[in-house]
Specification:
This protein is mainly α. It contains two helices and two strands, in the order E-E-H-H. It has a two-stranded antiparallel sheet with strand order 1-2.
């Protein structure tokens, strides 16, 4: 008998596949956000915009499969 793996976290439980799929889907946006944060913190491009708390929270929700 094969049991499905579950990722239980404070935000609920997703199957391991659902958890991995959500994280993979969010990876490109997470990378872009990290680049933006780096640019902002290092005084990169003049137009570097500070990411908002809401933008970061939204991206974390997406990575957790909540959106």
């Amino acid at each position: 008998m094969i049991k499905s793996m579950v990722c239980a976290c404070e935000h609920g439980a997703l199957s391991r596949q659902e958890h991995d799929a959500a994280l993979i889907a969010a990876a490109p946006e997470m990378y872009q956000m990290l680049e933006r944060i780096q640019d902002y913190m290092t005084g990169g491009p003049i137009l570097a915009k500070k990411p908002s708390v809401e933008e970061i929270a939204h991206l974390l929700e997406k990575a957790r499969g909540e959106r």
